[in-house]
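Recall that a protein's primary structure is simply its ordered list of amino acids. Everything else, from secondary elements to tertiary packing, is in principle encoded there. The following example makes that idea concrete.
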Amino acid sequence: MSKKQQSRTQRILLVDDDQHLLQSLAGWLQDQGFDAGMANDAASAEKELASKEYDLAFVDLRLGSEDGMQVLAHCRKHHPNVVVIMMTGYATVETGVEAIGAGAFDLMTKPLIDDEILIAINRALSQQQVLEENEQLKAQLDKRFGKESIVGNDQRMQKIFDTVDNIANTKATVLITGESGTGKSLIARAIHQRSKRKKAPFVEVACGALPENLLESELFGHVAGSFTGATTNKEGKFKQADGGTIFLDEIGTASPSMQVKLLRVLQELEFEQVGGTETFRVNTRIVLATNEDLSQAVAEGRFRQDLYYRVNVINIELPSLRRRVSDIPMLANHFFEKVCLEEGKELEGFDPMAMQVMQSYPWPGNVRELQNVVERAVLLGRGPLLTTSDLPAHVCEGNHVPIMATAQPSVPGVKQTLKEALEGPERQIILQCLRENNWNRNVTADQLGINRTTLYKKMKKLGVEDPQTASSAGW
């Protein structure tokens, strides 16, 4: 039983021009614990459906001079969540086929028998519950794997979102590049979810996790007896993804012989199973990903040039998290809320210093590392407000500039204001962005999510107006 059905008594609408049957059946249903409504023609049925939220309708095929199929059609168009069971005293095979074909759940013959009515109601409402749960699951998957699940206001990410929208419904091969942990799998799923293929399978293969002989069988399948242990035929991932999308992660690890096989599939969408002779053709969208520089691999002879040109039709390059400093608070809060919800924790969030520390850390593991750090902080946090003491030591004291080194020296009897305490981390964040962007202030301002004037004022206040002054100050 669904949550909606648990929250109230289930409502059943009876539509029949026989007033005696209406009243007797309604009374019996109420005795069984249902809320029964009544209508004796199509117009009153439509009015009743509009006035209350019904779960099920029993509709007579003949409503005087009217046709009960009109009520069925109205339900399908305006109240698709209402399950309709048709009733008739003159059932034929053709009548049943017509009613079921028009969307009725079942066709029952009068006179109705109590036990049969209850069985039909339970079957109909059980199916409706399954349909509702499937819709909820689909909505959750869309939310989890759609573009909306990827958090980021950085200009680079906004351009990537635009690219995903523009290419989702094309057949072009997509190559997603970027460091480990930047979210390449999420982008691949977002492309699939926003395409016309979203109802078909999305199949992911981690190419670097399998030796070559197993990878070939995994991708293309094999026939029984093709190698030791192959006792039955096996369908490969390309075949499983027919009509949908296959995502080949870590494509840069493919061996030379596997690269030849992949080139053929990319060009012709044809392949044979391991040990087989039958040629299979599939309609599969191919998305690939790598954290390697494939152009460098081509130059070194580790990756075929023709395959590189074939996979690099559309390239989406994901920026590292250290190049998206302005997105760190948003991402941290997103993961914080997610973990709190999953674990039933009621916490306030991160204090300003903890957030500054996270923005100054270079995040070699990118978004994946940030997510792990936030989850750890929520689970092990010692108070409602998470502080630097709840962050791992390497985040606070790693190879980047230590937080304590940037603060003003402690003087007995003199306490720092919060503003003074935060100037050190803020200076390091701005310096880091300026250096990464070769002191291009426009790009740095965009990356930090502030306007140029604000950046100029902060640089002047913090004493980092140019590379020379920053270097002479030892920053």
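The CA atoms of residues 444 and 450 lie 9 Å apart. Residues 1-6, 144-148, 399-414 have pLDDT under 50 and may be disordered.
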